[in-house]
Task: structure prediction
Amino acid sequence: MSAAHFAATVESRRDLGGGYFILSLHTDAPAPIEDTVPGQFVMVRGDWGRDLLNPRAFSVLEVDGAQRLAILAKIFGRGTARLAAAEPGEPMTVTGPLGRGFAAPRAGCTQLLVAGGVGLPPLLFQARRAAENGRPKAVEMLYGGRGRDDLVLVDQLDAWGTPYALATDDGSVGREGRVTLLLEERIATAKAAGEAIEILACGPTPMLAAVRTIGLAAGVATYLCLEENMACGFGVCLGCAVPVHGPRPYRYCCTDGPVFDAEEVRWP
Amino acid sequence: MSAAHFAATVESRRDLGGGYFILSLHTDAPAPIEDTVPGQFVMVRGDWGRDLLNPRAFSVLEVDGAQRLAILAKIFGRGTARLAAAEPGEPMTVTGPLGRGFAAPRAGCTQLLVAGGVGLPPLLFQARRAAENGRPKAVEMLYGGRGRDDLVLVDQLDAWGTPYALATDDGSVGREGRVTLLLEERIATAKAAGEAIEILACGPTPMLAAVRTIGLAAGVATYLCLEENMACGFGVCLGCAVPVHGPRPYRYCCTDGPVFDAEEVRWP
Amino acid sequence: MSAAPPPAAGLAPADVDLRTRFAGKTLATPLLAASGCFAYGQQFAAFTDLRRLGGLVTKGISPAPRFGNPLPRICETAAGMLNSIGLENVGVDAFLADKLPFLRDLGISVWVNFFGTDFESYVECAERLSVGEGIDVLEMNISCPNIKKGGIEFGTVPEVAHRLTKACVEATLLPIVVKLSPNAGDIVGMAQAVAEAGAAGVSLINTITGMAIDVRKRRPRLATTYGGLSGPAIKPIALRMVHQVAKALPELPICGIGGIMSGEDALEFLMAGARTVQVGTALFAEPGAIARITDELRSLMAELGIPAIDAAVGVLEAIPPEPAYAG
Amino acid sequence: MSAAPPPAAGLAPADVDLRTRFAGKTLATPLLAASGCFAYGQQFAAFTDLRRLGGLVTKGISPAPRFGNPLPRICETAAGMLNSIGLENVGVDAFLADKLPFLRDLGISVWVNFFGTDFESYVECAERLSVGEGIDVLEMNISCPNIKKGGIEFGTVPEVAHRLTKACVEATLLPIVVKLSPNAGDIVGMAQAVAEAGAAGVSLINTITGMAIDVRKRRPRLATTYGGLSGPAIKPIALRMVHQVAKALPELPICGIGGIMSGEDALEFLMAGARTVQVGTALFAEPGAIARITDELRSLMAELGIPAIDAAVGVLEAIPPEPAYAG
Ligand SMILES: Cc1cc2nc3c(=O)[nH]c(=O)nc-3n(C[C@H](O)[C@H](O)[C@H](O)COP(=O)(O)OP(=O)(O)OC[C@H]3O[C@@H](n4cnc5c(N)ncnc54)[C@H](O)[C@@H]3O)c2cc1C
Ligand SMILES: Cc1cc2nc3c(=O)[nH]c(=O)nc-3n(C[C@H](O)[C@H](O)[C@H](O)COP(=O)(O)OP(=O)(O)OC[C@H]3O[C@@H](n4cnc5c(N)ncnc54)[C@H](O)[C@@H]3O)c2cc1C
Ligand SMILES: Cc1cc2nc3c(=O)[nH]c(=O)nc-3n(C[C@H](O)[C@H](O)[C@H](O)COP(=O)(O)O)c2cc1C
Ligand SMILES: Cc1cc2nc3c(=O)[nH]c(=O)nc-3n(C[C@H](O)[C@H](O)[C@H](O)COP(=O)(O)O)c2cc1C
Ligand code: FES
Ligand code: FES
Result:
């Protein structure tokens, strides 16, 4: 494992509205941040006393050299509420980068990045890497949320030249309806054109379940970035079991994932 | 009881060195702050989550109108460490003013205020009131600490014209030795001069025990401001029992005290 | 859309009916102040409107006054506190004469917590309290972690608890709710024993015996060495015991206690199977905690579309099973 | 004076001797990693120097591999967490072949936690583990809150625990340390029963059965409904049990466990009577916690003038009595 446990400080916090915020962390410790693969995550914890014991898992949104990384989070419970109030200079501990990320886009095969709500960060990171490598169009983002407030950082896709389509439940931006609608149409187009595609998805579990069903039905390779309750993040507590088909009934979100082949996941 | 439970915010924090600090609190709630008697205390708690459950007790150092009060504290454990890091604007809850304070100086009887370390605040408040009432010399402060860092706010006594004498264990300021040395000498002078005196003391328990022994032996009325572990501060948890002589073996620091007649206290 | 729609299941908070029945009486809300954390109520009048409580449980009363344990009696622990107050109280006579009239006049449910130092004095206490007007429930404390004589067996051996409960039930016309000790190995066995002896319900849980050490002084932090642990730290244990007893004895009314600090905590206990709950330690830091928790419970039930307490009690569903593993 | 004098009792941290003896072996420090919180050790090598540990306890091993419980398996509580991992493990054979060699080579004390699903498989497991080279202690887990069969009685009925311990002690030459369940009503009775059966010591405590509820989903937060509570929340209960057993059975070596997060916590357990301690939950947030706690323990002992572990174990004094009350 090429992860480290290191001290960091909050460099900045940028509020995006709707409870979303970006936390940039800086470290002086030697940490293998630079090698982070999109889909990998970090465990983050502030100076929270004995009340909130365990760190929280966040996909890496972006890295900058060996000393800076950013996460994008949404206020959910106590931990994310604390992070949303973190001020520059506040100390944090970070373990990571952890887990296995997404494969890079292969030549001639477009990756459809299906993002729902707070599932955006690993996919935005994937899009950024593709753009940095001069291939912004090797990926296409399909991004859905409940409303306008749930679609953040879209301007970055514009800047990189990443193709994208949006959907909102309330129709306030992009297509009205679920992001899976966009996915179904895009698969249909690809099939019609004989275009090679694969699906990378991250978001709420019901969305991932729908993406899985669609992907498997269409015979398209589908990779899901999953979230399970985690205590450690590095394969020790065995809390983050993911039910799978195969030689053993469970694999682990933190070490075997968080990215899993949709075929493998034992979901209804 | 004329106490209230109210929300307040930190107005300022002034660090005095040696772990001592003054926290000024401001409230917009109707609170009977103005009527506080020196020796009364408040229970203070920050937004500490579920880890540090109970508020901490602090003698009132000073009040300013109906909306401002200050405490002087020293970093001891987790709670005082949190308070020592509190920033202006931080929300606090306060219960108070609580307990029974010191009697005001009577005409013709000098109050010797024996303060040890963090026992200063109620006695400094007593001195302030005497000065405000135009009788700064109705009290005399005998103030002791381990070293220079433990004697804070002495400039206020100068400003008010309050007579005082200092003692430090290491001799860095004032008399070398315990504050009880000053007390014994002062009692001797008073006896010799036929001067009427009484003793008001606050500080670490061993100091209070010594003051009690000296006061009782000399037949001088002696009042001790005690500290016991408190959960509520208003007579409900029964945690803050003080062993006493009299009809019942215990009285309560928070409601019967914190100021007790030394004769009543059942100490060795 | 210009305005966010109300949540699908939404109700107006004012439409939520917080009334609950327990031991034959109706309480305006399921929230009571716990024994030992509310004294005899007067002190709270300065801080909060006592009429907003569903009810209150007095400090434990014994036949004769008791003076309590040496100090230190309390200390804080992670998300909790230890106490060894020693069941200090004014005794039955002074309680009936000096304390009860104030409580009776509040118009909320009055539960009197009581105990004895041996079998006979338990029965005597129940008997003598029965003359008190305005008492709704006698809550019998069989845990008594802080008194030496008798305490342990009453609270941990089902047969002994059965005999004691039976004798007290026969000594009074008031409903007896038995407050069980979490230190008992078999909480369901204890609940069953007291239910069969005629208890009108059980209160779950009392404090759990614990200890803390001052390493600098090389001494226990409490003069009695051990004390009772309360606060959010024990909530998971309390919830588990409530759930176990509710499953095993669905007809037995349960009053849930342990670490309740919020409306959500209270709803957890209701869903686990409690019909009323008590708030203890939270009152020290926030004398008005019960009014706040009541408001939170009402809003949360409205948000979740739960119209009444009955619709919350014991409604837990199991987590749906995973698809079978075929290897 | 220009420089502050060292505290009267002061010692140089380097002069503090952290060695301790347990079950016939000497450990370099009293701090071990707790079972289930350290897996089989490899993962920690990336984060911390494993040689700084006094020892480690493996995840619980059963004769055959086990796959564990459905999810969710963990959730956080106030100053604690619940888990229902289900004693997932690789089984004896894979453990001996794939995991033990790495551990043996660390040069620290290796304790193998084990359990069975019934009487025979406990004995079988002890027997089959005995061939493993480099194992110092077999820690027998009789708590098993998360497995259905057998678990409960082994951990709560002294006679049953006695029989089981005796059979396992006879099946191996390795010392057997029995890890007791805090869910037992009478912890001293349990300790005595296993000591008389030949246990070389006891580990105190395993997790306490607890529960949490997701009120929005109306479901338990764990798929198994109940799970084991660990973390600082349980420390006062663990300390009390260690102290009770140490008082009753002063000769029985005790390994203290429950919510240890700091050197001061560890010293509390030593003073209560433990000769070694284990750190569990703290390792999740801070994989290097044991090295930090070791440093803190060393400094604190130096500050307090305690030169060696033996001088800390069980040294508690009572709080001096108050002067008599004459009325
Ligand atoms: C691999 C991975 C990557 C993630 N990436 C992101 C991200 O980039 N941005 C983001 O906002 N969120 C992300 N999450 C979810 C994030 O970890 C949870 O929202 C967060 O833990 C909630 O913590 P809380 O204290 O606010 O909530 P609480 O409900 O107070 O948390 C209590 C406990 O539940 C656990 N928990 C609650 N929700 C989740 C969840 N959805 N997944 C895992 N554990 C949970 C927490 O870890 C904690 O132990 C990720 C989760 C995983 C597993
Ligand atoms: C009436 C009264 C007036 C006080 N006035 C002052 C003051 O003006 N300035 C000041 O600095 N301190 C004062 N104290 C002491 C102050 O309350 C403690 O220093 C403080 O509670 C320590 O909290 P902590 O969280 O830092 O320590 P911790 O050790 O973490 O506290 C743990 C628990 O122990 C209790 N505790 C610890 N030490 C004391 C103590 N000495 N007295 C009472 N409870 C204690 C705390 O309330 C808390 O519940 C006063 C205490 C009382 C009872
Ligand atoms: C200081 C204190 C005193 C208590 N006294 C009593 C008592 O006299 N009788 C009783 O049955 N329970 C007593 N209890 C237990 C509480 O009623 C309650 O069962 C326990 O504290 C758990 O609830 P909590 O976590 O909300 O405090 C006391 C608790 C505390 C903290
Ligand atoms: C995730 C997890 C898994 C555990 N697995 C085991 C186990 O396999 N065998 C065992 O005896 N104890 C197990 N325990 C209990 C711990 O070893 C320890 O007794 C308990 O967690 C209390 O210590 P702590 O508060 O330091 O975590 C486990 C604890 C946790 C949190
Ligand atoms: S989070 Fe601990 S094993 Fe995955
Ligand atoms: S602090 Fe609660 S009674 Fe005094």
Summary: Residues A 230-233, 235-240, 252-254 surround FE2/S2 (inorganic) cluster (ligand 5) (CB under 6 Å). The radius of gyration of chain D is 20 Å. The interface with chain A takes residues 36-39, 43-44, 46-48, 59, 67-76, 78-81, 83, 85, 88, 231-232, 261, 281, 283-288 of chain D (CB under 8 Å). The first helix of chain D runs from residue 92 to 104.
